[in-house]
Specification:
This protein has one domain: Immunoglobulins (Immunoglobulin-like, Sandwich). The relative contact order is 0.19. By secondary structure, the protein is an all-beta fold. The protein has one helix at 15-19, and strands at residues 22-27, 37-45, 63-66, 72-75, 86-90, 94-106, 110-123, 140-147, 152-158, 161-162, 166-171, 177-180, 186-189, 195-203, 206-214. Strands 6-7-15-14-11-12 form a six-stranded mixed sheet. Strands 8, 9, 10 and 13 form a four-stranded antiparallel sheet that branches. The longest helix has 5 residues, at 15-19.
């Protein structure tokens, strides 16, 4: 099985823009049936899970996803619309991930992925693995290695290398708590509740988040 290749959305924004909000990708379902239509929205807000307005700059290029068969389908989210506008994706069996990145130009480091946000969707019929092994190799990326109602294993990479950092874990119902990754960038936990989670972190001036769902 080929690994998922996740596309970038280059957005040339100043660093202060990314620091002002949490960003996340919100699929209409985290466990849709194969063949069903999934609406993808981009959200920005101070308080998860309320989806606030996401204003796109003029050079927004769209959202792209590739599946385990190596094929890809492009979803265009109109740049003139705020969050609530979305692309539609036809669900295929397996674990799929959507990625959005805010890119800025640094005077010494060149192009920097200032903020990376990912969402993982599990469609019945796949083996629930594979997604965690791929990424863009840029910015701060949080991967979902394993998830069930009893346990979750996460992995954080910074520019493709393991990152030892502190994760902020926010359930949609419940209090935020922290989780530390080890030198391999990994962390495990027993989820306190089921439902949606926004997991975020910052490291060396860049930030990343993961939006996922814990089954009952």
């Amino acid at each position: 099985m080929k690994l998922f290749q996740l596309a970038l959305i280059p957005l040339l924004l100043a660093p202060m823009t990314a620091a002002a909000h949490d960003y996340w990708i919100e699929p209409s379902s985290f466990s849709p049936s194969a063949g069903s239509a999934v609406v993808i929205r981009l959200c920005a807000n101070h308080k998860f899970p309320q989806c606030g307005d996401f204003d796109f700059p003029e050079n927004y290029k769209g959202l792209q996803i590739a599946g385990p068969d190596g094929g890809s389908s492009r979803m265009n989210i109109p740049p003139s619309l705020e969050s609530g506008a979305g692309g539609k994706w036809t669900a295929a069996a397996g674990r799929h991930a959507f990625t959005m990145q805010l890119i800025t130009n640094h005077p010494r480091r060149g192009e920097v992925a200032l903020y990376t946000t990912r969402a993982v969707v599990d469609v019945p019929g796949g083996n629930g693995t594979g997604e965690a092994q791929s990424g863009t190799g840029k910015g701060l990326e949080i991967f979902l290695d394993q998830v069930s109602s009893e346990s979750m294993t996460l992995r954080v990479l910074h520019d493709g290398r393991p990152a030892q950092t502190t994760l902020q874990v926010q359930p949609e119902a419940g209090r935020k708590f922290t989780l530390n990754t080890d030198r391999n960038g990994q962390a495990s936990m027993q989820p306190p509740v089921s439902g949606r989670y926004l997991i975020s972190t910052s490291n060396q001036g860049v930030s990343g988040s993961l939006h996922c769902s814990i089954p009952k």
